[in-house]
Amino acid sequence: MLNEIFRIDFIGIGAAKAGTTWLGRILGEHPQLCMSEPKEVHFFNEKILFNAAFRKPNFHKGIRWYKKYFRHCSTHSVKGEITPRYLVDPVAAERIKQHNPDIRIFVCLRNPVERIYSQYNFAYSFVGNETRPIEKAIREEPEYLEMSSYFKNIQTYLQHFRMEQFYFIWFEDIQYRPNELVKEIYTFLNVDPHFVPQSLHRKSNEARRSRFRSIQPMIRLGNYFLVSIGMSGVIKKWKDAGGRDFIQKANSKKLEKSPMPDEVKHYIIEQVREDVAQLSILLKKDLTHWLM
Question: Could you tell me if 255 and 125 are in contact, meaning their C-beta atoms sit under 8 angstroms apart?
């Protein structure tokens, strides 16, 4: 069985472009916690998504393959990873439950309209695998709306896990109350809540336009090679030293985004309206501003 050999203690399942990079940073800096390197492992996924088509299923490679991403972690550290694509993959929910039925789960939530526009701009301007205008893309590619169908996706996970195993992170809280939020997150993981991470107020994944799109795949291949030979710690040291951020900034420029067309915004709102209403009831939070 998986949990007889190795298991992680917490996992972030999404949503993409809703604060998972910030979450990964503040978790990775805490001395009692240890994040996988790189952050997204895609181990439990079965579903292949448009915006991560290069990510092939890895579960068949087994737990020893997965463990390589945590070679840099000490024995007693609280371990975890964040892969935003897990949120929309029902098979991933089942596999995570098999791996650790008591795992703690983070879900990052953001206004669906803003999240979709951010994901679209990332795919269009940075990754380059999206070439369609947004009004066409959101109608042809289910992933954009699926990732923002929070209630539907959370309900899938609630078939396998208890509500108290979840911690929901609102994007607005990252922006406006990060100090209180980070203490709550550390408390949820039963580690020292008084630790203050250096990247607490640092903006993550600012919208940018890639200069040379071949650079990111090269970095990805380099990471996989280092992991395969048991050197995930090298990735962490390189990232902690600012190497990753330096290359990303050097290989991109700030994206000047135009406002989302009103007809696209209205279309998205109508598609997610019922899901937002159900989410509001489930989490006891007023979300009417998402539908305006």
Answer: yes
Report the CATH number that the domain containing residue 34 is assigned in CATH: 3.40.50.300
The pTM assigned to this predicted structure is 0.89
Whether residue 234 lies inside any domain: the answer is yes
In a domain, 89, yes or no: yes
**Pairing of β 166-170 and β 104-109:** parallel
Q: Where are the beta strands (DSSP E) in 177-285?
A: 208-210, 252-254
Where would I find the H helices in 100-231?
112-121, 134-140, 143-147, 150-158, 171-176, 178-188, 215-228
Residue 261: inside a domain: no
What Cα–Cα distance (Å) separates residue 89 from each residue in 43, 80, 196?
A: 12, 18, 33
Confidence tier at 242 by pLDDT (50, 70, 90): confident
Q: What is the pLDDT of residues 155-208, one digit of tens each?
A: 999 999 999 999 999 999 999 999 999 999 999 999 999 999 998 887 766 555
Structurally, how many domains does the chain consist of? Answer: 1
Structural domain that includes position 235: 9-256
Let me know if residue 267 belongs to a domain: no
Spatial separation of the C-alpha atoms in residues 291 and 266, rounded to whole Å: 9
- Structure tokens given for 147: 């990732």
Containing H/E element for 163? none
